[in-house]
Amino acid sequence: MERTLAIIKPDAVAGRKAGRILDRIESAGFRVAAMTLMHLSRAEAEGFYAVHRARPFFGSLTEFMASGPALVMVLEAPDAIKKWRTLMGATDPAKADAGTIRKEFAESIERNATHGSDAPDTAAFEIGYFFAGMELV
Ligand code: ATP
Ligand code: MG
Fold first, then answer.
1. Does the model's pTM come out above 0.85?
2. Which atom of ligand 1 is nearest to the CA of 118?
3. How much is the pLDDT for 3?
4. pLDDT of residue 73
5. Which atom of ligand 1 is found nearest the CA of 91?
6. What is the rounded distance in angstroms from the CA atom of residue 91 to the CA atom of residue 102?
7. Which regions of the chain are under pLDDT 50?
8. Which protein residue's CA is at the shortest distance from atom 19 of ligand 1?
9. Do 79 and 10 meet the contact criterion of CB atoms below 8 Å apart?
10. Tell me, what's the pLDDT at 134?
11. What residues flank ligand 1, with Cβ below 6 Å?
């Protein structure tokens, strides 16, 4: 079993797409091991995306991530990190495969509906950023 951090981003929560995205997650065989709705502060969004600090879109990305509530969760499945990124599709919805979550729900490369950890070390950092051990069920 593997765990990954997933976020239904503020665009998708505000657009009332969270229920349909959760249905896709559960239908794909993931177990939700933790989940919380939270409105990130700008500083919390900057800490989460610190690896992108030098990128030209960092200011706009963190403003977007702090723009409204997001649904932050831990997903568990065999090969969860890769499996969740495959289900999400490419970062840019214009390049995402048919049937992926971003193809169906993302508005743009920035407002792209969901987040997923990209490797075991980032998954461990991201899960620990939002959840204490006892919050993982
Ligand atoms: P995430 O980390 O959110 O799962 P990702 O791993 O597919 O997405 P990253 O390269 O890590 O993509 O970028 C993090 C986030 O920054 C993207 O999900 C998107 O919201 C935003 N982003 C990425 N590239 C751009 C860009 N060129 N312009 C604007 N926003 C971008
Ligand atoms: Mg990423």
1. yes
2. 6
3. 98
4. 98
5. 7
6. 7
7. none
8. 110
9. no
10. 95
11. 52, 57, 61, 91, 109-110, 112, 115-116, 118
